[in-house]
Amino acid sequence: MDNKRRRSRFSLTLLQGFEAAARHLSFTRAAQELSLTQSAISREIKTLEQQLGQALFVRVNRGIRLTEAGQTLHRAVGQALALIDEATDRLGASKGSETLTVTTSAPLASMWLVPKLWRFLSLHPEIDVRCVAADQRLDLERERLDIAIRWSPHDSGVPGGERLFGVEIFPICAPALARARTLRGPADLARHVLLDLETITGIGSWSDWAPWLEAMQLPDLKPLGTLRFSHYDQVIQAAIDGSGVAIGRTPHNLRQLRDGLLVTPLEEEGKISLGAYFALIAPRSAERAVVKKFLAWIRSEIRADAEGSESRTQAARKRSRPPSRS
């Protein structure tokens, strides 16, 4: 038998981890894209290098770059994964289903989009949805994505994108924590533990509290303590558990606020606007019927959220009014 046929194949998981790290030139971003830890990506790369007997990356300053062997492998793996994607797309189409691929930030995916997707699938069971959560801006054509829901720090927008909704940020915490400790104004946060999201995005390092504290003119505030997380759903779970005060976002946290799991202790005083999300469609996907159906559904979900928020605001105002005298 041919030796080439007998030799063992490299793990597809290892190759996918390598491809993501090579594309981003960052183990951290590769880990975020694949929902792994940075140490897991590092171990996969080390294993692959041991199997090949060659280094694939070298460290330069604070980053990494591909070696000559790494560049050769990256070209081959990229082409192979593209062929696999094309084949699976064709097979999906042949069984009568269509695939829609959408990407957005990890916080919006985990807290807003994914919990709603079952409603889209109940309306369109013939459509297979692939959701790619990534805090960096992926290339729609190269990654074979149909729609990107992207945040922009400026309300002016994303070139070629359709504005979906604005974003507000504000402190949130568990109801019990709000009752137990005084939190009447921004400066009172000095007596609380802050829960912070720290991550690397396409526009650099990001801290959830930094823009809010800057807007409140408290950039040097010293909290009682700080707990830092790499994923937003971890931040929110810690807030629900009463571990401290986090930065909430709309529309991300509408469900937790509606269900009473979290509250906004500073009410309207603590809310600031922070850009907006926009829908960007890949040119090759602009006329796909599945894309149009998905965008129509997204718009309907946004309207439902807005109507629900208005109803809750009106109900809160009624509760706060003093009883009328007969």
Description of the structure:
With 326 residues, the protein is α/β, with parallel strands linked by helices. The chain folds into 2 domains: 88 residues, Winged helix-like DNA-binding domain superfamily/Winged helix DNA-binding domain (Arc Repressor Mutant, subunit A, Orthogonal Bundle); 216 residues, D-Maltodextrin-Binding Protein, domain 2 (3-Layer(aba) Sandwich), CATH 3.40.190.290. Helix content is 44%, strand content 22%. It is built from 11 helices and 11 strands. The strands form 2 sheets. Strands 3, 4, 5, 6, 7, 8, 9, 10 and 11 form a 9-stranded mixed β-sheet that branches. Helix 6 links the parallel strand 3 and strand 4. Helix 2 packs across helix 4 and helix 3 packs across helix 4. The radius of gyration is 23 Å and the shape is globular. The N terminus is likely disordered.
